[in-house]
Amino acid sequence: MSFRTRRNKTQPRVLFRHQIKAMAAAAESLPARSPSHHDMPPGNASDAGIPGLFTSQPPIIDALETESSQLQQETIDECLPFLSGEEHAGKCNQHGIPRLDKQRHVKFLQKQLGRLPPQMTAADPSRPWFFYWSLAALALLGEDVSAYRERLVETVRPVQNPGGGFGGGFGQDSHLATTYATVLALMLVGGEEAYDVIDRHAMWEWLCSLKQADGGFQMVVGGEEDVRGAYCASVLISVLGIPLEMSPDSLAYAAGHKSLFSGLGEWVGRCQTYEGGVAAVPGIEAHGAYAFCALGCLSILDAPHRSIPKYMNMPRLIAWLSSRQYAPEGGFSGRTNKLVDGCYSHWVGGCWPLIQAALSGPSSGEARSADQQAADTGSLFSRDGLIRYILCCCQDQTLRGGLRDKPSKYSDAYHTCYVLSGLSSAQHKWTLKVARPAGSAGGADEWEAMPYIEDEQIFNEDDRIGITHPIYVIPQHKVEAAWEYYGSKTTE
User: Fold this and answer.
1) How does it assemble (predicted)?
2) What are the chain's domains?
3) Which residues carry out catalysis?
4) Are 277 and 322 spatial neighbours (Cβ–Cβ below 8 Å)?
5) pTM metric for this prediction
């Protein structure tokens, strides 16, 4: 990972000035809206250096009110006091941004890895997710999670089934979601003991049984088939170095699939909707989490600048993803006409590094077109808008700590993990440095991360967090350590 020298600027830069003027001019012809008690007091925005786009009611208001528009307005009214600095008096920097309370969030996450109260018994099938969410978030906050290795190995060993994969708890069927979470948790703590607990041969046989005749993957034997399965299976195959050859006993083999990745890109491509987003399965509503799963899967099948344009309509996909970011909130929604939610800081925000790589291609190793070189500059989303939403609205400032989806909600491990992942993506720029040879599956491209410095930095440098791989959502060196270890294994 390389870093460039940051530019020193003493004066805050007001962003989106041309957009604000254009929107305000257009708004003059629309009915006036009664002022809200949550509107920003005059002068506060300029005093704090906060762009007006993120501190005031939208200058254009649709005169037709619906249930969706009313919920959206309620969300704006809920977020504005936090975005304008009213709820963080005396705690903000010159840009109106509160600090990231790292130590409080670390304590919150450590508590999630301890003994949970009896009412959490109903969440027993989700235990692997608690491990992954908490460990991944702690790693982003700079904590050494290897101390949890022994406890994690002892906990997950009994939930690995002889037929391959991990269940949520002891005696539960293996499921791709819980297997994905368990394997990534083991990669996070690292070490031979963690790597060796995984029965890779049984995992291969189980994955072959999940492969479907249409190219996709079921989440559990006999269960649902969706884009989550495509992504989770691809990550497991790539990280663990699972052989791609299909078992002759598999029903998918009889349908003509000789590789675990055979037909997978085509199946994922059929999940793109008329809106441009990606659905769980072909023919239903697009969703931000499925967009990330689709792009992550395709970026494992081949380098993103080859695979994503091959299977996705890029202009429609970019238009749909761009429409997910709202102002004044600055966060992302997961679906059309839905509210912002902190977790989409990752699910939608995490799509942008992969989209950027698909547009610009590798920075070295291949001849690049003028369009690819032009795509290197700028940002495809408002990083400052997302950072503002996360640091202002998503932090739980109570003694509880952690992060949440918006101000009125409670923090939890899920949102803490994915909000921090989104913050990392907004604070850094990922570049596809060197792409693997064409036609090589497995995801072993060379990526590089550095601080994003194209615009004025609105957060304090102490609030910068670690990086997480744009495909695997664990630190890059954790992925590389797993590749090195499993690559050295010639037999199982």
Assistant:
1) Heterodimer of an alpha and a beta subunit.
2) 97-116+128-488 (1.50.10.20)
3) 287, 335, 338, 341, 343-344, 405, 412, 415
4) no
5) 0.89
Two structure tokens written together for 397: 């400032």
At which residue do the structure tokens 């509503």 appear? 285
The position carrying tokens 């910068």 is: 464
Inter-residue contact 458 to 446 (CB < 8 Å) = no
Walk along the chain (492 residues) and give the pLDDT tens digit of each residue.
333 333 333 333 333 333 334 433 433 443 333 333 333 333 344 445 567 788 888 888 888 999 999 999 999 999 999 998 888 888 899 888 999 999 999 999 999 999 888 888 888 899 999 999 999 999 999 999 999 999 999 999 999 999 999 999 999 999 999 999 999 999 999 999 999 999 999 999 999 999 999 999 999 999 999 999 999 999 999 999 999 999 999 999 999 999 999 999 999 999 999 999 999 999 999 999 999 999 999 999 999 999 999 999 999 999 999 999 999 999 999 999 999 999 999 999 999 999 999 999 998 877 778 777 777 778 899 999 999 999 999 999 888 999 999 998 999 999 999 999 999 999 999 999 999 998 788 778 999 999 998 878 999 999 999 999 999 999 999 999 999 999 998 544
